[in-house]
Amino acid sequence: MIVSHLSLTDFRNYESAEVELSAGPNLFVGSNGQGKTNLVESIGYLSTLGSHRVSSDQALIRHGAERAIVRARLEHGDRQLLVEVQLNRSSANRAQVNRVAVKPRELPRYVTSVLFAPEDLALVRGEPSTRRRFLDLLLVQLSPRFAGVIADYERVLRQRNTLLKTARGARITDGRLSTLDLWDERLVDLGSEIIEGRQQLVERLRPHVTEAYQRIAGASHRAELALQLSILGAQPDDDAMGDDDAGVAMLSTGEIVEGFRTGLARVRRAELDRGLTLVGPHRDDLLLVLNGLPARGYASHGESWSFALALKLASAAVLRADSALGDPIVILDDVFAELDEARRQQLAAAIGDYEQVLITAAVFGDVPAPLAAHTVRIRAGMIVEDDHPISGGTSAIEPGEVP
């Protein structure tokens, strides 16, 4: 699958833009702050319904505008799709596919992408919540039904936490909280499904991560993954320097359910004291191991970058194997500036056979020549060629066109 044409209206710093894209590598070049990342961010939004830079859609709407519109023409074999989303300041977002209204949450069914950006260094060096989000976004792309499972789990979690806080404030003892047992069952049902989905995903990612890291950094290095489960006693959110082997296991469906129930019973007193749910997939972590040591505490800056890249390349490989849409769109946002020459060449080789790769760079020379065949230059929210604007006139679509 490729994006053959991208249209933006009032998205980030673009009043309007029309960009033709080709199969293979596409390089966006421009000084920092000119709008390169905004272009690829818009495509990433279509596949994840979120930004890799901000948590709110409001920041994606150009200052002074009431709405932003992203429209992409997709091609997969002989099939073409027109995918559009309208982000609104004061009302719900709207979307359409081939001019037919759909719910925005359905868009990822039509667009798959894997984006790597400087912020993704936090996958290795950041908090467990960053790695949990990485797993869940990929899980939803592979199986969209998990979006509903995760949303239901988060709703139950909020309700259970509210009950625990109320109990703490009223000094209610464990024996008088029969309502909590009802929430426990729902939490276990939904949470066990998420844990099992993540386990299967980690198993699928593991060989691809090992291979991708070795392609980038050399065959003498070994990158490995493991899922740390709070239901088995791991506490990654409470003790980042704890036992890295705690809670690491591959469990069957029945073992997950039983372990979840046992874990809730084990921490019931602590939960009542803190007013907080202390076990479940919202407290798990993805353990990254490099040459036998936890990457978070021991990997150098270059090794951390390589591990983060390996995670994203592994994601692309898994999506490629599963998706009926063909290859995911691979997006590399300002990545090559952080890599030495050897790693640049290895990365270029690793992504060279994907159907479409989008790359941003501030310096043209940072990007290996094979990836620069189709170059688009960006300046101040305009697409330019030989310092003259060639785009930026008409709106991508009129606001009224989105139902």
From TrEMBL:
It is found in: Cytoplasm. Keywords: ATP-binding, Cytoplasm, DNA damage, DNA repair, DNA replication, DNA-binding, Nucleotide-binding, SOS response. Coiled coil: none annotated. It holds the Pfam family SMC_N. ATP binds at G30, S31, N32, G33, Q34, G35, K36, T37. The RecF protein is involved in DNA metabolism; it is required for DNA replication and normal SOS inducibility. RecF binds preferentially to single-stranded, linear DNA. It also seems to bind ATP. This is DNA replication and repair protein RecF. Belongs to the RecF family. Its main location: cytoplasm. The keyword ATP-binding applies. It comes from Lysinimonas soli. Residues 3-361 form the RecF/RecN/SMC N-terminal domain. Gene3D superfamilies: P-loop containing nucleotide triphosphate hydrolases (3.40.50.300), RecF/RecN/SMC, N-terminal domain (1.20.1050.90). It comes from the Bacteria. InterPro entries: DNA-binding_RecF, DNA-binding_RecF_CS, P-loop_NTPase, RecF/RecN/SMC_N, RecF_2.
